[in-house]
Amino acid sequence: MRFWVAACAGLVLAGPAVAQDNPRDKDLGDRAEAVVSQPLKDLGAIRKNPPKILVKAAANPYSLAGMRGCRDYSAEIRRLSEVLGPDFGHRSEEGGPQAGQVAQAGASAIVNSLIPFRGVVREATGAAAADRRLQHMMAAGYARRGFLAGYGKARGFKG
């Protein structure tokens, strides 16, 4: 068991070095940090505030307040995409999972198995509720991005 934990930790910690050589995987270091810090999040020791753009989207995903022209729509869609990742029309060149994603999934599975009764611990510490709130905000962000893209396209905006 210790061997597998050490092997996964090695993969996770090697992420930043790989990310420097491959610009398409520039967030590999961030993903490695997320895997390593997950037990602390589960225990409630680390809490992050959700991005403001998602809080705004959750409040009213279909609001057009402050949207005056193509630049405003494009800027809002870009800010949402920075948080949510690319929209469905944008795929990686390979089309399949990146090596970093596979390593992250394996490392996450092992790190997450280290906390006994993880689900109960997450509910007790409020980490599960915080994740549900974040998932709700992300869904609102997806809805807002799609709404703005469709609305802008209907108005003839480019970009």
Please give a structural write-up.
This protein is 68% helix and 0% strand. By secondary structure, the protein is mainly α. Helix 3 packs across helix 7.
Quick overview:
The protein has 159 residues and is mainly alpha-helical. The protein has helices spanning 2-21, 28-42, 52-59, 70-84, 99-112, 118-125, 127-154.
SSE blueprint:
Layout: H1 2-21, H2 28-42, H3 52-59, H4 70-84, H5 99-112, H6 118-125, H7 127-154
Helix pairs in contact: 1-2, 1-5, 2-5, 3-7, 4-7
Portion of residues in helices? 55-70%
Distance between the amino and carboxyl termini: 50 Å
The tally of beta strands, per DSSP, is 0
The secondary-structure class comes to mainly alpha
Overall residue-averaged pLDDT value: 75
Contiguous low-pLDDT stretches (5 residues minimum) are: 1-19
Largest sheet: none
Rg, Cα atoms, Å:
19 Å
What is the global morphology?
Answer: elongated
Strand content: under 5%
Helix count from the secondary structure assignment: 7
**SSE sequence, one letter per element:** HHHHHHH
